[in-house]
Amino acid sequence: MTALNRVAMAAVLALTSGAAVAADCKNAGSFEKWLQEFRKEALAEGITASTLASAAQYLQFDRSIVARDRGQRFFSQGFLDFYGKLANKGREQRAKRQVELHRATFARSEKQYGVPAAVVTAFWALESDFGSGMGNLPVLRSLATLAY
User: Fold this and answer.
1) Looking at the predicted structure, is the pLDDT value of residue 68 above 80?
2) Which has the closest alpha carbon to 9: 66, 90, 92, 72?
3) Quick one: which of 84, 80, 103, 100 has its CA closest to 1?
4) What is the rounded CA–CA span in Å between residue 130 and residue 5?
5) 24: phi then psi, degrees, rounded to nearest 5
6) Which of 5, 37, 46, 51 pairs as cysteine with 118 (C-beta 3.0–4.6 A)?
7) Is the CB of residue 65 less than 8 Å from the CB of residue 146?
8) Residue 24 carries which DSSP code?
9) Closest C-alpha among 66, 73, 72, 76 to residue 146
10) pLDDT value at position 22?
11) pTM of the model
């Protein structure tokens, strides 16, 4: 992993640890109002109305998702402990393989969104260990809740 990739991994870990994750949402508007704005933005980005309609039943706020997010035990550790447990050589090697395997996808994504492959890969590693730990919570409900 290059020095830049190591810095990106460290930045992701720092941003997702401790106080950054524990901070409470200060969204003053209702979830319904936020969802209306989200739908407008999605349509403007090219998501079809039929896709939004089929996803609508899953776009709900779920307080239990917030509680789970705030209660993740990894994030109660200091940065060095957290980094030491998660940023190991094995994960680094798998990250390199995934970046190489999905090079074209990462290139398109970086061009469109401006986020380097190293940052996306770091989140992918942390959130699901490259897909090996997918969890059992509803994805759309979870994403809508956390995005709000």
Assistant:
1) yes
2) 92
3) 100
4) 17
5) -80, 150
6) 5
7) yes
8) P
9) 66
10) 43
11) 0.62
